[in-house]
């Protein structure tokens, strides 16, 4: 369990670039309540701290847009992105409550192919971000975490640079598949 002090420290240091895999329940619409951040407030959600698991770290590539997120808003965008599939896929799974972050910070790019091309010619950027990620893992109190990559690009970066960790790959939530099919594919990675 994460203490309230640790939670507040993480929120202050990483809240604009990271979040937790906990969402409000949807209403009739699959994208409803995605932006409801009250579930990430321990004063409102009294079970929150006991649900958080820093030993599951879900890792995406980068921000797709240059936005100034509210604390823990990353991966909790309203109806604009495909984040709702992640909520649907992770609910009642061992990944629920995991920590969510990007491996590459401060380089917004909607086209991941463009970012990957850039990173291939700037290996120092990759190394810098990997070292920052290692510090992030220490800061959140992760002990032998399972790293869960959203897609191939992140998986490749993690495998090359963090071989000491258990790393599993799930499809990226932006793939054009139904939320039901996405959930099935995520379930397969759990075993």
Walkthrough of the structure:
The chain has 191 residues and is of the alpha/beta class. The protein has one domain: Uracil-DNA Glycosylase, subunit E, CATH 3.40.470. Helices cover 38% and strands 13% of the residues. It has helices at 4-14, 48-51, 83-90, 112-121, 123-140, 152-161, 179-190, and strands spanning 19-20, 53-60, 98-102, 146-150, 166-170. Strands 1-3-2-4-5 form a five-stranded mixed β-sheet, sandwiched between helices. The longest helix has 18 residues, at 123-140. It starts with a helix and ends with a helix. The mean pLDDT is 89.
Task: Outline the low-pLDDT stretches.
Answer: none
Distance between the termini: 23 Å
The CATH first-level class comes to: Alpha Beta
Multimeric status of the protein: single chain
Mean pLDDT: 89
Count helical runs. 7
Structural class: alpha/beta
Strand order of the largest sheet: 1-3-2-4-5
Looking at the structure, what is the overall shape?
Answer: globular
Task: Please give the CATH architecture.
Answer: 3-Layer(aba) Sandwich
Q: What is the H/E order?
A: HEHEHEHHEHEH
Q: Give the count of structural domains.
A: 1
**Helicity, as a percent range:** 25-40%
Please compute the radius of gyration using only Cα atoms: 16 Å
Count all strands and give the number: 5
- By CATH, the topology is Uracil-DNA Glycosylase, subunit E
* Main sheet summary: 5 strands, mixed
């Amino acid at each position: 369990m994460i203490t309230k002090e640790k939670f507040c420290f993480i929120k202050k240091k990483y809240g604009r670039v990271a979040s937790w895999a906990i969402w409000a329940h949807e209403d009739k619409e699959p994208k409803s309540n995605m932006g409801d951040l009250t579930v990430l407030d321990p004063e409102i959600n009294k079970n929150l701290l006991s649900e958080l698991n820093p030993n599951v770290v879900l890792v995406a590539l980068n921000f797709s847009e240059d936005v100034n997120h509210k604390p823990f808003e990353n991966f909790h965008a309203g109806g604009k992105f495909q984040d709702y599939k992640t909520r649907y896929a992770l609910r009642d799974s061992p990944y629920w409550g995991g920590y969510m972050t990007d491996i590459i910070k401060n380089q917004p790019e909607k086209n991941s192919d463009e970012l990957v091309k850039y990173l291939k010619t700037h290996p120092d950027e990759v190394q810098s971000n990997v070292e920052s990620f290692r510090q992030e893992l220490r800061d959140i109190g992760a002990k032998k975490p399972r790293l869960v990559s959203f897609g191939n690009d992140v998986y490749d970066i993690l495998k090359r640079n963090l071989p000491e960790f258990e790393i599993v790959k799930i499809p990226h939530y932006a793939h054009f598949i139904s939320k039901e099919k996405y959930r099935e594919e995520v379930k397969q990675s759990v075993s």
